[in-house]
Each structure stands twice: as C-alpha cells, then as structure tokens.
Amino acid sequence: MVRGQADDGRPIDSRQVESSQPVTSRPVWRGRLVVLAGIVLVALNLRVAVAAVSPILAVVREDVALSAGEVGLLGTIPVVSFAVFGSLATPCARRVGLEPTMILAMLLSATGEVVRATVSSAPAFLAWSVLALAGMGMGNVLLPPLVKRYFPDRIGLVTAVYSVALSFSTALPPLFALPVAQRYGWRVAIGWWAVVGVAAAVPWVVVVVRSVTARAHLRELLRRAPRRTGEQVLVSHDRGVTRLVWRSPLAWALAATWALNTTGMYVLFAWLPEILADAGLDPAEGGRWLAVVAIMGLPAALLGPVLTARMRNPYPLVVCFLACWAVGYLGLWFAPTHGTAVWMVLLGIGGGTFPVSLALIGLRTATPAIAVTLSGMVQGVGYAVAGLGPVGIGLLYDATGGWDVPIAVLLGLVLVQAVVAWRACRPDMLGTPETADEPVPAEAR
C-alpha cells in the first residue's frame, strides 16, 4: 500500500485514488509544518486558564468577592468542563470537521479568558471561566485524532512533542502570574494568556483555507481515476462508529487507565502540599515539591509516546511507570520527610502513563473518525471519574483523621491501573480503514 499526501498534508491512500502518475518521494515534514505548529500551540493553550489563576487567587478575591464555596467550585470547573465539553467535541467535529471545531474551541477559550478578566462579580467570573475551559476541554479531545489524521507515520513523536507542550502549559503560567499581577494587575495576568488561544487558532485557519484548494484538486483526481469493481473511492462515514467504540473492551480499558491516572495526578496537585505539611514540612516547601513532581513529568511526556509507538505492546513501559508511582506513594506514606526528593521524582515519573494513553488513542484506531470518537469517550469518562478523586480523598482524610488510609487507597488504584492497562496495551486495532472514515466534505462530493 502506498501513501501520498494532499496539498494540505492529509494522507491519501492508494486504495482510494489510483493514478497513472508515479509516486514521488518527498520530505517527511513537507506540507505538515503548519499543522505541527497548530498542534503545539493548542497544547500550550490547554492548561493556562487553570494554571494562571490559582497562584494569584488571593489577589483576585480582593476585587472579585469569591466565597470559600465559590473558590471550591472554581477548582471543580476544570475537570467538569473537560468531561462535558470534551464529550461535545465529538459530534461537533463530525458535523463541521476537526479543523473548524478546533478553531472554534481556541476562540472560545480566548474569549472566556479575556472577558473573565474584565468582570467584577463572582458569578460572572465563574461563568466566563466555564467558557474558557469549555474550549480547552474540546481541544483536549481533538488533538489525538488530528495527530492521527496528519501524522499517521509519526504518532509517537508528535504526541511526545505536544505532551511536552502540555506540560509547559501547566508549568509556565504560575511562574509569570504573580510578577505580572504585581506589575500590571491581576486582570492582565489572567487575560493576556488569551493571546496563546488566538495564536493557536491561526494555523488551523490556514489549514482550512488550504484544504479548499486541495479538496478541489482531489475531487478532479477522483473524477478521472479508474475504479475497481465493488470498490468505493472514498469510504463514507460509518454511523456505527459510536457503537463500535462504546462497546469495545479496548476503549473501556483505555478510559479506565486514563481515569485512574488522572485521578492520581489530580489528588497529588490538590493534596500533596498538605500531606507534606502534616508530616512536618513547611507549607511553602510543599509547594516547591509539587513543582518538582510537575517538572519530572517532562521526561516521561517526551519519551513515553515515542517508546509506545516503537513497541508492539507497551505494557512493560506502563509497569515501569506504575512501579515508580507505587514506590513514591510508599515513601510518602512511611517516610515523607526522609528522601522526599526521591519520592517526588518517582511520583512525577509515574504520571508517564498519561502520555502513553494519549499515544494509544492514535495507535489503536484505524481512522481519524474512530480516533475522535475514542478520544471523546476516553476523556469524557476519564475526567468525569477523576473529578471525584480529590473530593473522595478529602472525605477519607476527614473520616480517618490521617493520611494512611487515603494513601493506601491511592496505592490500590495503582494496582487496579496495572490490571486495566494490560488490556489497554494489547496490540489490537479498533476498526479497520474500510469500516469507517471521515465524512466526505461537501467540496469533494
């Protein structure tokens, strides 16, 4: 099977278009650099609406009268938005296409960030925060199928690149938030990140504009190309894709893996400073150790997807990550103030199952149409479950008066993740190129 590329960088399968012209080799990145820039910019934008607020929340509350309950609600909005609006991204992408939906998502996030920086009431601040995070929740779901569409030959590498960008999206805003707020005010410190959202939309606008010409050219090729008896030139979208995904054990194993990994990370970001403070460390030191956990996620984000793409079954890699997580939890349980650096490094590396799951969405799906449905299902279910994690661990702490039982539960979740990840990593493919594909664009009909 020979694969070429359309002018907009999309792969063209020789089973779809037969031509007498010889296939010429071309540079592997040619026609896809704009798409790569779009993927990286989107990833850089996917966490800023969350990470830019928490470091200056006390300053924000001086102007916006957020009650303690509303502050708690502000902490819940991200995971709920990621679950709800991530699920809505799938039907939207089916109706208007992946690229236009991504443009909409990035503009929604930018609008929400700008407007919430201008309001003075708590309900308005919360409402516009929902809009900002709605766009980011949609972007979360759309990135894996876009990688599948434009980089089917580089899924591991491109997933690694945008996983690192996603880590920077979490780490950079806290570094700039307080200095910018002190110099220019909290409204600028929150609102200026909308520039990233607007910039992330630009490459996708270019891709959409280019695709009009590319599809017209493809339509002419299809009109002239000979067809083999009984073979469709373009395979229309199978309306059973949703049923295929939601009934798949592979999809549910991926969703469970995603949910358990995200639960663990949300619990750490919510409770790690307090766990260390209760063990006797200074509260400020607990915050610094949390930053170490976040930073140590970068090597895992870079190497995890690349190694996953090269392995027929990446389960041994997942086991290594989970072993790091388990040892980190044990150290946090029995010796939190001794060897703290080791435990934090291990906990950061343990989160490497997250980028592995991202890569598997593209690697275990036959088409972008299946990938976008799987991505929506996995992230919708995963974030919905993960939102219960910090609350549940907090309730366990209140009920038992200590961190022994909560940490034991977290260790148990690691063991459960080891079981479900075994199924998620098996070298199975969800669907086939013939059973489903993207809807035929109106221009190409």
TrEMBL record:
Source organism superkingdom: Bacteria
UniProt keywords, alphabetically: Membrane, Transmembrane, Transmembrane helix
Subcellular location(s) per record: Cell membrane
The keyword Membrane appears for this protein: yes
SUPFAM superfamilies: MFS general substrate transporter
Pfam families in the record: MFS_1
GO CC terms: plasma membrane
Membrane-traversing stretches: 33-59, 71-89, 101-119, 125-143, 155-178, 190-209, 249-269, 289-308, 315-335, 341-363, 370-397, 403-422
Signal peptide (from-to): none
Main location: membrane
Domain Major facilitator superfamily (MFS) profile: 31-429
Membrane topology: Multi-pass membrane protein
Entry's Gene Ontology molecular function annotations: transmembrane transporter activity
InterPro entries noted in UniProt: MFS (IPR011701), MFS_Cyanate_Porter (IPR052524), MFS_dom (IPR020846), MFS_trans_sf (IPR036259)
Cited PANTHER family: 2-NITROIMIDAZOLE TRANSPORTER (PTHR23523:SF2), PTHR23523
Protein name, as recorded: MFS transporter
Lineage of the organism: Bacteria, Bacillati, Actinomycetota, Actinomycetes, Micrococcales
